[in-house]
Amino acid sequence: MKHPRPAAIAAVVAAPAALAVAFAWAGGWIGPKRLGGGAIADALEYNGGSHPGYRRAHAKGLCFTGVFEANGAGASLSRAAVFEAGSYPVFGRFSTAGGDPFATDGRNVFHAMALQITSPEGEIWRLAMDHTPIFPVATPQAFVELQRASRPDPATGKPDPAVMKDYLSRHPETKAYQDYIAAAPLPDSFANGTYYSINAFRFIDSAGEARAVRWSFEPETPLTVLDKQRLKEVPTDHLFDDMRERLTHGPVRWRMKIVVAAPGDPKSDATIAWPSDRRTVETGVLRIDRAGPEEAGLCRDVTFDPTILPAGIGLSDDPLLPARSAAYSSSFRRRAVETPGPSAVGKSLGAH
User: Fold this and answer.
1) Catalytic residue among 58, 111, 131, 171
2) Among this protein's residues, is 51 annotated catalytic?
3) Chain segment 132-175, per-residue pLDDT in tens
4) C-beta of residue 62 within 8 angstroms of C-beta of residue 94
5) Which architecture does CATH list for 6-341?
6) pTM (2 decimals)?
């Protein structure tokens, strides 16, 4: 049995104060003036419509539980306890992009995986990842602009072409993302997608040395893809039903790989991928054992805020990180005073 280390005990004692400072910083109450989480949540509602009781983004989701089996290699990069060789409990959520909890799965949008990994000392690490290695915008302001410019016209289901053209003329990074997702293979399952941190973070080792990193979870399940010419034929809950069916036959696994930045790699721009030849360290295996609707899962009332980090992992200067934290907090506060909506996929999934 592992005994808590002095550093871990100190980290747990200090956690409430650290979280209070983090939330104040994320909310813009201290530090430089930033776009507030309420403004971001408003933009998401403007784009996706009003769906009380649901998340303002990634509204359609599925809870899961499992373990992270660390191989010990990550301890050379970070002193975070979850990189020491061992098994650590995990719960999380699969979701699809957008604010409509009843949207069809036959859309060419990113799939997402969110996790919470807990150390024996009780330290929490929350990760929120997409199956694309880049993000469409680099700043919170651009994100809000994009939500407003891409709002679907109820008559056509598509954004106003003139408004979108004007936005893209000022944001070539979003056009690059659109070109990428149009050409990239679209996984036909949550189980066979690779999930990326997108944002950069800082890993601090036992000697105090910090390194900029990103990470990915690469599936052991071979990739098969959806035919984009036939997306309208995809059943509404295809991705969610598929995951339930797969898990009746056994666990699904991903290998966690940490990518270490080289000098000159962008640390604060999530629209730019790092070159593929960067140093990569495989740190363990994520194993998912069970999945079920949010009403019966651990994930429903959790914000997968990527700024909630254990000792040994820190934030980069990416401006999207505090904005994500603030937006998740605002969305949670709104949901907290609304009647929780039934899982969009609960009826088909049952209580597996």
Assistant:
1) 58
2) no
3) 999 999 999 999 999 999 999 988 989 999 999 999 999 999 99
4) yes
5) Beta Barrel (2.40)
6) 0.88
